[in-house]
Amino acid sequence: MSYGFARRFAAALLAALHLGAAVAQTCSSASSSSGSNGLGAVFSVFSGGSISVGNNDANGQCNVAFLGGNQVNVTSSNLAMPGTVANGKTCQNYSTTPTTAVQASGTTLERRTLTPFPTFSASTNSTTESTTTVNLAKGDYNTVLLRNADGAVVNLVDGTRIKTLQIYKGTVVFAPGTYYIETIDTQAGFNIKVSGSVGLVTLNVKNGLTLNGGVSCVNMTTCSKPNSVTEAATLGAAQSPERLQINIYNGDFSPQNNISIAAGIYVDKGVANLSNGSTFVVGEILAPSITALNNSNTYYYSKASAMGGNSGTTTEDPTNGYYDLAPPAVPPRANVGDYAFFAVQRDMTASGTAGTSGHLFAYAEQADGSLAGAAAWDAATVMTATDRSNSIQTVDSAGALVKLKNVDAAAFGASSAKSATLIATIFDPNYGGGAMLAGRDPASLVGRPWRTAPIIVGDAVLFAADDGILYSVDRKTGALKWGWIPRELLPQTADPKAMADAHPWGQINAVTSGGVTYITGTAMQGALHMSLKLNSAGNLESVAWVDYVAAATSPSYTYGTFGGAAPSGPVRETSAVARVAYIRNNQLIVRNVDSSGATNPSTATLPTTATSNLLYIDNSTIYYGDNNGNVQVVNSAGSRGTSPGNMGQSPAQPIISLNAGWHKNDSGTFLIVLGHTTSRIAAFQQSASGWVRAWYVGVQESSALGIEKLPAGSVITAPPTFGDEKLTFPYTITTSCGQDGYIYGPIGLDDGLPKLSGVTFRGASVGSAVTHYLGKGESVRVSLGVVGSRSFAFGYANGGKSNASPTAGWGQLEDTKANPPGRVNWRELTNYY
After folding, report:
1. In this structure, how many other beta carbons lie within 10 angstroms of the beta carbon of residue 103?
2. Cβ count near 80 (within 10 Å)
3. Where are the alpha helices (DSSP H) in 482-636?
4. CB atoms < 10 A from the CB of 739, how many?
């Protein structure tokens, strides 16, 4: 019998924060009113904002050319442009024949909530002054400087934070990921690029963004500026603004003369000031107000950016339907009629007004692996405010469990004077006439689950929400068993919107030791890790330990510092008390899962920068992936062993998840470790003579002729799942019509080759097809399960729902020749997002 285990992470680059809340957009034919499936216009402003395109020239003519749409998102009274529709000299959309006048849409967009800009200190400086290429490791930098070097290239990787980035000629290349830069200083002749052909760069800038021109480019395939409408149309059509999102926290966005830029640009507190020279913008700008000069050779090309899904912000475009951002919880072995569980959310109330809500739906599994068309129950509607008052707990000042309604006022910190109001609002968000609803649906008791995956633990289902609460509900009825909110989080309940927008929970996990179940998890953006002890009935008995370090982070491949992997138990337990391991501030921490873990942790600094979850085999063998694409192995003291290898990508991409399984052949049984980036999965096989990279598959690439390549534009959105020495994994393709989710496989764990004999997808033979279309939305982690005596791999695309039914995005691969797969369920090992 073979064993496998899997891990999963936040589909980061395709997270809702990155690509439209992972909700598929409706594809409709283009019209003259909007050339974009994003914000719908190249210029958009907040309520009360204005758009002004310079003054009339001597002839009263608009000299600016718009392409891709004839509307800007502003009220008509706040739009000022040269010329008039009557005299035919107003600004025109040149993407139609004949051209059409640019007009106000009459609508404005809401200000978005940015994840708080992190505070960090840095003393490292990097200066490049020659025509060399410099690869900077992930880290915090005081200054990164390119000076007087046209041919100089500096490559940056995901997670890098910089006090001042100075580009005085030369090129900075950002790998897909999230960056925080306090100040960007440029001079004429600079170039900013996004590496590769897929993946999103989210560039967060604290202190305004002035781009000094002189033929400089940002995310352009060719660094040139058009000199005619025809050139602008051709050049603009070739750009990919959806690959770069720029969020400006304070100050203005001000491109100077001869700047060409393709991006989504969000200005939070300043203005977009395009009033100095000629500019070429491809994408979308959203700001409080926008001004531009009436210059010739100025082109604004409306094209969908990632901002259609609020990339880099923590709110999503209102979606009048149910959607989820995390994979469902599927029982590994089920009878017909047992439930699969979906933690979903909604942005609109039942009446169609704005208001967020969270839900946990239960759907019955059918004999053929499909799901019932309607949910059996929703835990959010089963729950009452009285249930919450009686069931939600925290800890007192001594760390002992206490019902939230009885906690001491000091737990709320500076807001202790209104602790009674805060407690009442936690139980019923509409308390006091909804004074603290903060955008919630007044009829909803549960916050958004966001990207925290639900887990099945005995007779209960656990899920966490943006209201700060970890919930446990009855697996059969949805009734609330208990809830828990960390004491360290209680002060944040005074500002429920900020707390929700920061997404307080990471992932949760279940670990068993001596017949006792413990719930481990991470919260507060990776600053808090914990272990909760359950009794034999599955109720909360005590808090074993809480490890809280303010402002600390854990590896997480989603926007900013959201969550991270829950503390995970080893595959081979050698201690009387189960140990768990996790990463905090790039330190490996190993401790007992029970209450003795409060005093016995071992802590070791990792030798390289970890970007993935931990793969905890035992105390002498702990794997992780790093920012340079290496699979590393250490012991519990942090001492490095022989690396299984590198992912082999150029430029190097960070490994965002690891998992592994054992393969048996004539020579024995060997471990195979799978590394995963957004564009490649590689298998590293151990043998008596050492490690070898056995095979890989990626976007338009593979290591062998028989391994089918992923199509262009694919992003691998979760790690592979495998059993019976076969694996499947999800990928997603984003087009102008939204996202399309697929699953790939099954393929062999040892060789990556298709294993399709006897395999069906949704009841029909797959033939020779190794890719299978699920539906609209992001394809999430594949789950293995047995229903009755039939073995399935369940795929799921999370944008295929309406009226809370996930059936449109659900797809089951069945291996009709397989025995029920022998595997260790991934949730018993770790829970990584």
Report:
1. 18
2. 13
3. 496-501
4. 26
Residue-level pLDDT at 6: 29
Residue 736's φ and ψ, nearest 5 degrees, are: -65, -15
* Longest distance between any two alpha carbons in the chain, whole Å: 87
pTM: 0.70
Strand partners, 605: 587
Residues 6+ apart with CB under 8 A from 24: 738, 739, 740, 775, 776, 777, 797, 799, 800
Splitting the chain (833 residues) into consecutive groups of 10 residues, what average pLDDT does each group show?
A: 29 28 30 44 91 73 89 91 73 88 88 83 83 84 84 86 92 90 91 85 93 86 87 90 93 89 94 85 94 88 75 42 86 96 88 88 96 94 97 97 97 94 97 91 94 94 97 98 98 92 90 95 93 97 96 69 77 85 94 92 94 86 93 95 95 87 80 92 91 95 96 88 88 76 95 96 95 90 92 86 62 79 38 40
Instruction: Round to whole Å and give the CA distance between 721 and 730.
Output: 9
> From the CB of residue 168, how many other CB atoms can be counted at a distance below 10 Å?
18
Nearest-angstrom CA–CA distance, 54 and 90 = 12
575: left (phi over 0), alpha (psi -120 to 50) or beta: beta
For 373-410, give one letter per residue: b (16+ CB within 10 A) or e: eebebbbbbbbeeebbbebbbbbeeeeebbebbebeee
Output the pLDDT for position 338: 97
User: Among candidates 214, 171, 153, 164, which has minimal Cα distance to 189?
Assistant: 214
Q: How far apart are CA 575 and CA 788, in angstroms?
A: 35
The rounded distance, in Å, linking the Cα atoms of 50 and 292 is 11
SS3 359: strand
pLDDT at 564: 80
Helix (H, G, I), strand (E, B) or coil at 691: strand
Amino acid at 283: G
Whole-angstrom distance, CA of residue 355 vs CA of residue 346: 8
Contact yes or no for 671/660 (Cβ under 8 A)? yes
- What region, left, alpha or beta, does residue 513 occupy, with left being phi > 0 and alpha being psi -120 to 50 degrees? beta
What are the Cα distances from residue 396, in Å, to 404, 406, 409, 424, 530? 9, 9, 10, 18, 16
Is residue 597 within 8 A of residue 588, CB to CB? The reply is no
Q: Which residue's entry shows tokens 């505070």?
A: 119
Residues 6 or more apart whose CB falls under 8 angstroms from that of 584 comprise 526, 529, 547, 549, 552, 553, 554
Strand-strand pairing, 259-267 and 244-255: parallel
Please, which residues have CB within 8 angstroms of residue 158's CB and are 6 or more apart in sequence? Answer: 138, 175, 176, 177, 178, 179, 557, 611, 627, 654
Query: Is the Cβ–Cβ distance between 556 and 545 less than 8 Å?
Result: no
CB 181 within 8 Å of CB 207? no
* pLDDT for res 402: 98
